[in-house]
Design brief:
Elements lengths: L7 H47 L46 E7 L2 E7 L5 H12 L6 E2 L2 E3 L5 E4 L28 E2 L3 E4 L11 E4 L3 E2 L6 E7 L1 H10 L7 E2 L6 E4 L2 E3 L1
Antiparallel strand pairs: 1-2, 1-12, 1-13, 2-10, 3-12, 4-5, 4-11, 5-8, 6-9, 7-8, 7-10
Amino acid sequence: MSSGSPGSGDEQNTARRARIEELRAAEKAKAKRRRTAVIASVAAAAVVAAGLITWAVTDSSGSKSNSAAGSGFCGNVSPGDPNGKQWKTAPAMSIDTAAAYSATLKTSCGDIGIKLDAKAAPTTVNSFVFLAQQEYFNHVKCHRLTTSGIYVLQCGDPTGSGSGGPGYSFADENLKDPAIQGGTYPAGTVAMANSGPNTNGSQFFLVYQASQLSPAYTPFGTITSGMDILAHIAKDGTGTGGADGAPKDSVVINSVPVTKG
């Protein structure tokens, strides 16, 4: 019979087992810390890589642009918010309908040039020029992109909801334009968005690819430069990946200078 109190051997075995389990737990914890450190390093490397990709893209103006998810290649956003001004009536005619007018949408993605047709759509061009001069379009995000059947980028709503406007509306114009009579709006067309006949306000759309539309939307201009920018925005698609929604790129109009002649 071994010396010592009754059960001392069992207690020693229990103590040894406890010590072994303790060592095993410590080793597992150490291994887990090593794995976490490796994962963190990999994640950090991914962030750095994403940062390089984000700022490696250059837009047509030569400035660096943010291509992160949600912003795409459009990173040149001027600070500020839409002024959201409201008017009770459409502006009085102030343009020379016999003159040539052009506008430049200076967007976060690059400049888009537009030739305005004051002769064929005088009220529409007059309103557009008025709003541009009032800086109404400044800091307004283009809120809608369609990529199937209808191929347009829609802008001009300071609320970004698709239902905002300047407080006034005006009648349709130029709906007998031969270019749209076949039910197709040619690529490069700039036209007014509306919610029914004679409900034009501030929202307009840019056609980047020929689109099947009934001749119910006032065409008032033609894109003269920047179609490549629109193509890039369209290629990046919508934020949800669907065929109709807010563009994945953050397309913001910084300003709209207008020139006469």
